[in-house]
């Protein structure tokens, strides 16, 4: 499968014989070193972003095992210098020089002379390479290989520069006002209290996402619906054959039957899909309220859990491609029984060990859905 190249002017993104390494997304300190060496502004790597082995010195690469891996202290240092960045001095062994094609050297030499002189031009070039969300960015047409997947969201979100596009598989838009991987010291205070909603108990506010298309399983499943409790970090994940309102509504009803009614379910799915899901829920549950509310920042309310889910999905696809749906329940339960880095608690303990009876009827709110859409959510 084709990989996304992240180093400027790197020509090895489609080289099947090249070894690629993912960014250390779950190690902020190490990730910062990687990005500093790349000398890119306003760019955040996604779960699909990789660097080829040509960007690492031989001392950082471990070739002793069955597969080529990076050592714990590995940092990329080999990049094509540009006019507005400081040249990095690196030492390469004879083995590295043999692995680097002569054509690549010639390309680097010629491109170094024609690099843009301003960082804004470079950013524009990067942004223009971003594919549409509704297309398969990989361009891989081999039916025998698993295709890339995405979180299905409203197309309008692509025009919001302040929204963290962590669901996007290629270059990200500038994220000047977004801290994509929040640390424990980040402030959660809202400047406007009237537009802030506090999450103070389990199963109050949930986040709904649909991921796909994933590699089709032997049972015909190609999509995955996830419901996340913002307070406890509990995750429900269920496979779907198709991305249809009736399928999503059926799974939501099953979850409500088990855990009870939440206050509302937030989702960044397209507006028409949210409306159709609500219509299905009203008909089957015999309720009058719209349980699912469109909220453009559904995924940014709990970035850490989103990253954990993404990693779980990636592992399932890589390890159990033809039957990831069979292993999904065990993976999700394992995720919910592990200590969450933000709460320092197990989601299972926060949600299931409180002996709270599930609420069997819709819950009322003191404000309209329009107020929900304009509010920021803060977990207390």
Topology:
Blueprint: E1 4-5, E2 20-22, H1 28-38, E3 49-52, E4 61-62, E5 69-70, H2 94-99, H3 102-113, H4 119-128, E6 150-151, E7 196-199, E8 205-212, E9 223-229, E10 235-240, H5 245-259, E11 264-267, H6 271-285, E12 292-294, H7 303-319, H8 324-336, H9 347-352, H10 369-374, E13 376-379
Q: What value does the Rg take, in angstroms?
A: 23 Å
- Classify the secondary structure makeup into a structural class: alpha/beta
Point out poorly predicted stretches. 83-141, 160-190
Shape category: globular
Strand content: 5-15%
Report how far apart the termini are. Answer: 42 Å
Helix content: 25-40%
Q: Oligomerization state of this entry? A: single chain
Q: What letter string, H or E per element, gives the SSE order?
A: EEHEEEHHHEEEEEHEHEHHHHE
By DSSP (H or I, 4+ residues per run), the number of helices equals 10
- Report the sheet with the most strands, covering strand number, pairing sense and barrel closure: 6 strands, mixed
Average pLDDT, rounded to a whole number, is 74
For the secondary structure, the number of strands is 13
